[in-house]
Specification:
The structure holds 2 protein chains of 2 kinds. Helices cover about 45% and strands about 5% of the residues of chain A. Chain A is mostly helical. Chain A folds into 2 domains: about 100 residues, PGBD-like superfamily/PGBD (Muramoyl-pentapeptide Carboxypeptidase, domain 1, Orthogonal Bundle); about 120 residues, Arc Repressor Mutant, subunit A (Orthogonal Bundle), CATH 1.10.10. In chain A, the strands form 2 sheets. A 3-stranded antiparallel sheet of chain A has the order 3-5-4, covered by helices on one side. In chain A, strands 1-2 form a two-stranded antiparallel ribbon. By secondary structure, chain B is an alpha+beta fold. Chain B folds into 3 domains: about 180 residues; about 150 residues, TATA-Binding Protein (2-Layer Sandwich), CATH 3.30.310; about 60 residues, Nuclear Transport Factor 2, Chain: A (Roll), CATH 3.10.450.40. In chain B, strands 1, 2, 3, 4, 5, 6, 7, 8, 9, 10, 11 and 12 form a 12-stranded mixed sheet that branches. In chain B, helix 2 runs antiparallel to helix 3. The mean pLDDT of chain B is about 85. The chains are: A mainly alpha, B alpha+beta.
């Protein structure tokens, strides 16, 4: 009886261990399919695994761009899977079976903003090249004509200029800056427009250097993606605090929160 | 005892006053040094702009020497480069805002005209424009020297300069100068085809459809977004200065707060955007896309096709382009953006401003192109499709849109290249991430 009980318990422990190992391997990814344009922790895993077996030589950043796409197609071709550049369940299962993923190593280095790779066959500790402090896993996707620096500067400007305004008003402020870049009367870069002397109060009084919140960043992303609640305005002002008489001569389009937006 | 305490107190008080005095003095010296540094920087920028203005005048005159050929090309390139340099100097100077605006505009048009002249203008027309520009630049150069003399010589502090700009009795007539520059711009450089086209959204003023009432606009909103349209806070018409009239509707329904703008003529949705607390869930992109496409179909946007998607922390941004029926080509200027929640697939935003005014498309011949000889041997063409895209002159052209790859230091670089189907001109090349 005792023997049977002991065997039963051993069997249960073995089963639990096996299940744990099995679940780490096959259910490492989330359920969702991954394709070009997606981002997140599961894309980080996809890139790390593809890199482990030599298909992906790009930077592990959690954004499913073209580099990940071509690497995945190559992997699918080599392993006789349908070549569609989409990481569905069959592709993920195969990838999990033939590669390894050190989640802690990858996530730690991403959090610390380190430059690193995740190739198999050589010690991971030797693949950390050092680097800065920006959070790599926080990468944002935006239209190709804008950069991360543009996003950062715009978010600072939006937060400094309109943090007390409704969301719509914050998107509108970002849109005005972007409208100016396309307009012949203004400089053609984000920095040029924002730092044009006297153009924005937040630059003059230093509030542009406050740390923007996620809401301001989201507002900028929407503006970069084409939303323009200002309806093509290139100026805006607060009628209570504006000192310039000239600004009142501009044709007005609409009022959002405390700001009047003008042509 | 009391005396001793008083003595100590007086000593401490004197020490504090003295320390404060030293501190105030050092801050004031620092401030003055910073003001001086800033004044020097501005004086340098003014002097740079003045020198380049003279160079620009010479470059414009040089373009009048030649009919065509290499000499003319170089002179035109100089005009473009110098006008761009002066624009940069002007944009970094604290000038009268109206003058700064019109001056930047003039320089931008002059540079652009010179750059695009070979494609746009007849030699005789080009000479006539440059002749006028040359005359304008001479008088502008004089006025500019007078306006900025004190600042350029370092005689004025920043505070004094600002005071002058804001003063109602300014020593220099900035307003008059602005008016002159504006007149020069309007007479010498009327809007080019390309600029007219970039003002596409403003062309919404030309919509010929009948006007809808406030109530009809509200009905449209309710029909498109029944989930969030129950609590309308405000419905206002656009202000009279708007380039096209529209209704602005604000709503706050349960957790969602946002707006929708609907054109007065035709009742078209310009844009809709809602903000609500973001959840943590992440739906499969295919389901979210289904949600976006169901919305587009129900809303009547039936001639659009998927172009691309970008996932961010709380939402997916989808881009759809109109598909022209003959060649099944995507019209890259007629787009709709849809923002969809990652958590539950609800539509958070729609931007259809560019879709409303459809581009005018002309058919054109399609010359077959051998991509193996067109591209370098290391380039691989991965995908080919047809699109309508704008060329430098702002005309819509049928183009081959090619996705090509190139091995770059161990990684695969991806580029999108648009090639005119008739002239083989490369309209656009963009690195893809």
């Amino acid at each position: 009886m005792k023997k049977r009980l002991r065997a039963l318990m051993c069997g249960a422990v073995l089963l639990a261990v096996l299940q744990l190992a099995f679940s780490q391997d096959t259910h490492a990814f989330t359920e969702r399919g991954l394709s070009k344009g997606t981002k997140g922790d599961d894309v980080i895993e996809l890139q790390a695994r593809l890199q482990y077996i030599g298909f992906f030589n790009g930077k592990i950043d959690g954004v499913f761009g073209y580099q990940t796409y071509w690497a995945l197609r190559e992997f699918q071709e080599k392993y006789g899977l349908p070549v569609d550049g989409i990481a569905g369940s069959a592709t993920k299962k195969k990838l999990t079976g033939v590669s390894s993923y050190d989640k802690q190593f990858v996530m730690d280095n991403l959090r610390k903003g380190k430059q690193f790779t995740h190739y198999g066959g050589k010690p991971l500790s030797s693949q950390v090249k050092g680097g800065g402090s920006s959070a790599g896993s926080k990468k944002t996707q935006m239209p190709a004509k804008y950069s991360e620096d543009d996003l950062k500067l715009l978010a600072n400007a939006v937060y400094g200029e309109s943090r007390g305004e409704p969301y719509e008003g914050q998107v509108a402020v970002a849109a005005v800056i972007l409208n100016r870049i396309e307009h012949p009367d203004f400089p053609n870069t984000v920095g040029g427009v924002i730092f044009q002397p006297g153009a924005f109060t937040a630059v003059s009084d230093g509030q542009i250097w406050l740390t923007p919140n996620e809401r301001a960043k989201e507002a900028v992303i929407d503006a970069m993606n084409g939303w323009d609640p200002s309806e093509n305005a290139i100026y805006y002002f607060n009628p209570v605090t504006a000192t310039s008489k000239w600004i009142w001569s501009r044709p007005q389009i609409k009022k959002i929160g405390m700001h009047i937006f003008c042509d | 005892m009391f005396r001793k305490i008083m003595k100590k107190f007086v000593f401490l008080a004197l020490f504090a006053v003295f320390s404060l005095g030293v501190y105030a003095y050092s801050v004031s010296v620092q401030n003055k040094e910073m003001q001086n540094a800033l004044s020097i920087q501005y004086a340098k920028n003014i002097s740079d702009a003045s020198a380049k203005l003279q160079e620009l005048d010479v470059a414009v005159k040089k373009t009048l020497l030649f009919n065509e050929g290499e000499g003319d090309l170089r002179a035109r390139e100089d005009v473009w480069r110098l006008s761009s340099d002066i624009q940069q100097s002007v944009s970094s100077l604290p000038l009268d805002p109206k003058f700064s605006t019109v001056w930047m505009n003039y320089l931008s048009r002059l540079g652009k005209f010179a750059k695009e002249a070979s494609e746009q203008a007849e030699p005789r027309e080009f000479h006539a424009v440059m002749d006028k520009a040359s005359k304008n630049l001479v008088s502008l150069s004089d006025e500019w020297s007078v306006a900025t003399a004190d600042m350029a010589s370092g005689n004025l502090s920043m505070a004094e300069w600002q005071q002058r700009l804001n003063s109602e009795k300014a020593s220099f007539d900035w307003n008059g100068l602005s008016t002159s520059v504006q007149q020069y711009t309007e007479t010498v450089f009327p809007l080019t085809a390309s600029e007219s086209d970039s003002l596409k959204k403003k062309e919404l003023r030309d919509i010929q459809e009948p006007a809808v009432t406030k109530e009809q606009a509200l009905d449209r909103f309710k029909k498109l977004f029944p989930d969030v349209s129950n609590q309308v806070i405000d419905l206002t018409p656009s202000k009279p200065g708007s380039p096209y009239p529209f209704y602005h509707i604000r709503f706050a329904d349960q957790e969602s707060v946002g707006y929708i703008d609907i054109t007065e003529r035709g009742g078209h949705v310009l844009s809709f955007l809602t903000e609500r607390p973001a959840g943590k869930g992440t739906m499969d992109v295919s389901h979210v896309r289904e949600s976006a496409e169901t919305f587009l179909k129900n809303a009547g946007y039936t001639d659009v096709v998927f172009e691309e998607v970008r996932e961010n922390d709380t939402a997916f941004h989808f881009v759809y382009t109109r598909q022209e029926p003959i060649h099944k080509a995507k019209v890259l200027s007629d787009t709709i953006q849809v923002k969809v929640s990652k958590e539950d697939g609800r539509i958070l935003g729609v931007n259809a401003a560019e879709y409303i005014r459809k581009e005018t498309l002309d058919d054109q011949p399609m010359v077959p192109i051998d991509w193996q000889t067109f591209f370098h041997k290391k380039v691989t063409v991965q995908k080919e499709e047809l699109v309508f895209a704008e060329n430098q002159q702002g005309r819509q052209r049928l183009a081959y849109a090619l996705t090509v790859t190139l091995h770059e230091n161990g990684t695969t670089g991806t580029y999108k290249v648009l090639v005119d189907t008739e002239t083989k001109e490369v309209l656009h090349t963009e690195k893809q991430m």
